[in-house]
Amino acid sequence: MDTPAVKQRITDLRRAININDKFSFMNELFHSNMKAYNDFIMRLNSMEQHDEAYAYVAEMSRQQGWDNDSLAVKTFYSILERKF
């Protein structure tokens, strides 16, 4: 019987996000603002608590007007889940 693959835990979001996703996130979630994207990722990397990180992401989602049904948002959350 096959067991489901366990997603490997990550410690550094910058390393876990591939170049295509990085540009997708930057363009779609941060309106092509590289500084805002980089600041966001660095701040998330410094967080250790799940609740703190997800509250920060929710606030950023509201500020940036994310479409939570978009592929970019869903992809981002799937990567973030591996950190926390």
Describe this structure in words.
It is a single chain. By secondary structure, this protein is mainly alpha-helical. Helix content is 67%, strand content 0%. It has one domain. It contains five helices and no strands. Helix 2 (19-29) packs across helix 5 (71-83). The radius of gyration is 13 Å and the shape is globular. The N and C termini lie far apart (28 Å).
Quickly list its features.
84 residues, mainly alpha, 67% helix
What are the SSEs and their pairings?
Blueprint: H1 13-16, H2 19-29, H3 34-46, H4 50-64, H5 71-83
Helix pairs in contact: 2-5
Number of helices: 5
Secondary-structure content class: mainly alpha
| Poorly predicted ranges | none
Biggest β-sheet description: none
Q: Using the CA coordinates, give the radius of gyration.
A: 13 Å
* Molecular shape: globular
- What is the subunit arrangement here? single chain
Summarize the structure.
By secondary structure, the protein is an all-alpha fold. The chain contains five helices and no strands.
